[in-house]
Structure formats: C-alpha cells, structure tokens
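Morning, I've got a small favour to ask if you have a moment. The fold is given in discrete form, as structure tokens running alongside the sequence. I'd be grateful if you could look everything over and explain what you see. No rush at all, and the record is pasted right below.
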Amino acid sequence: MTYGAGRHPERHTERLRLRQWTDADLDPLAELDADPEVMRYIGDGSPGTRERTAAALARTRAAWDERGYGLFAAEEMATGELIGWVGLSIPGYLPEIMPAVEIGWRLRRRSWGRGYATEAAREVLAFAFDEVGLERVVSICHVDHHASARVMAKLGMTHDRTTRVPAHGQPVQVRSLTRAEHRASA
C-alpha cells in the first residue's frame, strides 16, 4: 500500500525524535554501520563501509518519496544525537514471506539496553497500522540475536517461521503482528 508518497512525517516518543534523514546523518550512520558488534547479526555479519552506508541512506530517503513510509532517523531528544534508526521497509531479501512490510531497528552500541528500540518501535507500529493502514507487519532477526527477539516479544509479535536468507544462508526467525492483534493489546 502506498501511503502519502512524498510525505515525510516526524514522530516523538518520551525520549526520542523519529525524523527524516539529513545529509549530516551520513557520518554518524556510517560509524554505526562500521561497528562489528552492531553488525554482527545483520546480513552476513560484516561491518559496513561509508560507501555502502551512503548508498543505503540514498535508498532510504527514496523509499519515503516512493511509498510514504520508511526508516526514521532516531535521535535522542536530550542530546540531539543520532542513535540509529527504526522503521519500515520491504524485506525483499527474504522472498518466501513476500509481500510483506518489515519493522526493524539498528542502534549504536552505547544506546543498547535502554529500551529505545522498544519505545521507538511501538511508535512506528502505531504509524504503520493507524496512518499507513497496514494489516500486518513482520520483523526478522538472526536466530542468535536474542536482544532483538526480546524487543519483538515486547511488541506482541508472534513466531511465524524460522528460515534462512537465500543470499548468505544465515538462519533467521520471522515474527508477525496484525493490526487487530496490535489494537487488542493497546
């Protein structure tokens, strides 16, 4: 579903500003993607390069213009620092679950364990179901990424399947949440 293509909303939680991307975000995002611990369970597990991050950022910005949803830059309101991203994307890397929209997150290491991913993802789910009008959202993580699995559970997502990503063979779990399930838990 296309929601307000060309619209670039901003959302707020108690501690975070979920906003659109700026050119100034490239360096902190590249630093995040270059951290081996952050990237351990992402893709094939290799850290990103500045060039790959720049290309991904360009695709992220284009997704908002094309679909009206995408990945929000997650900024700590108290400091104004970019701590990562939380948002919606199309998980084309896992064809067996398509069509689907995935909610995901990636935060800098010093922001882990503070509840930011759950806080921001709850806000993004409200956006996904109430404004975008999605009926179902999935989330995908490496089977050993227990922190992300805990966030998924806190969001009320239930196990859909365990499978492998065709491009690199990494084992992942897929969890899902419907609009009705989300509303029932609110």
About this structure: The chain is about 35% helix and 25% strand.
